[in-house]
Amino acid sequence: STAELLYTVVSDNPRLSRSFGTSVLGLPDLDGDGLGEFAVGDSAEIGGVSGSGRVYLFSGKTGKRIQSYFPYKDRGEQFGNSLAFLPDSNGDASIELLIGDQRQNRVYAYFSPLLPPRAIVQPRSRIDFGTASVTQEVPFQREVQIGNQGFSDLVVVENEFRLSGEDRNEFTILPATAPATIPPGATHSFEILFTPKSSGFKQAILTFHTNDPDNPIFEIEMSGWALDLARVRPFSSPNPEEYGHFGKAVDGIPDLNGNGSGEAIIGAWLEDPGLAPANAGRVYVVDASTGETIHTFSSPNEGVYFNNVFGHAVSSVPDTNGDGSWDILVGAYYETQVFAATSSGAAYLFDGASGELLHSFYSPNRQFHGWFGWTVSGCDDLNGDGRGDVLVGAIQEPRSEEPILAGTVYVFDGATGDLLHELFSPNARANGRFGLALSGVPDTDGDGLADVVVGAPGEETI
Question: Of the residues 81, 104, 308, 430, which has the maximum number of CB atoms within 10 A of its CB?
């Protein structure tokens, strides 16, 4: 001993403490670190319904509180006015703790283990059951693990696991798996079933109490989607990323694989394909009847710069090459080509049957942040060749004489890739964003050719 101060400890409840240090006691090692511990009594601490008096047990190694003792059932008067340890009395080769309460004329013997349990629960706060079918006979199942990293038995109070919330009847705890007592160092698990009876978003709260003084109450939020999969089919990315934004853009396309079912085109504009730069983007074509992925597309230019955002816009296009299948158009408005203006943008047309690249489209008036490809749309024949054609919006491109960010729409021949028309707003305004929305329209003027509708949400009419 060097007579140096090691620790100064205080009550956990200084506002209620009146005589912290009434009694003190040195104890042998209790937590397995090979160093002694010490206890401190506060015989006048006010503790609410459990009366007066507290005893705190501190780690000799760290000086941190590792256990607290309170008057048992009856109100205490001077609980903790005296402390002593008792040689092993329950056969586990460890000491017991004696705590006196002279005003109550009582002495309490606390039998070892004197240190509390420590509950570790996984998942700690939330369980996501994903999407379940209301017609599926096998329920969705999740596991909850409760571990005890403390020094005494962990007890689930009254062995009670409660479900609450409006949808509590949609979840079931398997009673045979629910643990009641968990020894030190052990981990038990139990199962929860998601058994939805109707469609919609379902949620409930699982609650249970333990004898861990630091974690007496656990509440775990549970949720899941319930769908009638005979009527609704959810799709997920084959390459899931937390911020991949799968589903940013969608479109339907007639049967491509010969099974008579239509397909879904789905953009994931911030996914990172392979060794491509961040946010390069992907597009998937999925069989709507089976969920099978038919095609996966990424930008032919993906390796040059990051943030291509390929898949920000997608569209089906009536057959452009005469093979009898519709084709697939994808916009990458932030893409930069070599020696081109930064983020001038691009769009790509792929063969719907084979997945091969048919045409690459770039703005005839490439501009810095012109955002060519922000919107894309397939269109019925516009030039009389009997093939589908292509619309691409560049919402931040103006003509030289127009206000900034007025917007332009380009019309391309789907068969040859040639430019057919440049469309400008008759009411051009700064930030008008002409082309932010666009679509082909079946013949409206009787000339036998399709027409085009364009939105400009930033324009003000006079």
Answer: 308
Provide the residue type at 29 as one letter: D
Q: Across all residues in the chain, what is the average pLDDT?
A: 88
The answer to whether residues 413 and 420 touch, using CB atoms and an 8 Å cutoff, is yes
Q: How many helices (H) and strands (E) does the chain have?
A: 0, 31
Q: Which residue has the tokens 């329209």?
A: 441
Structural contact between residues 42 and 57, judged by C-beta atoms closer than 8 angstroms: no
State the pLDDT at residue 302.
60
What's the pTM value of the predicted model, to 2 decimals?
0.59
**pLDDT for position 49:** 46
* pLDDT tens-place string over residues 112-130: 888 888 999 999 899 999 8
Report the C-alpha gap between 310 and 302 in whole angstroms. 8
Domains of the chain from N-terminus onward: 20-110 (no CATH), 119-227 (2.60.40.10), 246-455 (2.130.10.130)
Q: What are phi and psi of 48, to 5 degrees?
A: 75, -135
- Cα-based distances in Å from 201 to 130, 132, 144, 166, 194: 10, 10, 21, 11, 12
Higher pLDDT, 160 or 80: 80
Residue 182 token pair: 């968990």
β-bridge partners, 203: 223
Q: Is the pLDDT of residue 347 over 80?
A: yes
- The string of pLDDT tens digits covering residues 126-154 is 999 988 888 777 778 999 999 999 888 89
Tokens coding 347: 């769009």
CA distance 392 to 400: 19
User: Which two three-digit tokens encode residue 321?
Assistant: 């090459």
What span, in angstroms and rounded, lies between the C-alpha atoms of 27 and 56? 12
The answer to whether 137 touches 176, Cβ cutoff 8 Å, is no
Strands annotated E in 47-87? 51-59, 65-69, 76-79, 82-86
Q: What separation in angstroms does the CA of 15 have from each of 12, 57, 66?
A: 9, 19, 20
Q: Which of 79, 89, 72 is nearest to 54 (CA)?
A: 79
Q: What is the pLDDT of residues 14-51, one digit of tens each?
A: 777 778 899 999 999 988 889 999 999 998 877 644 55
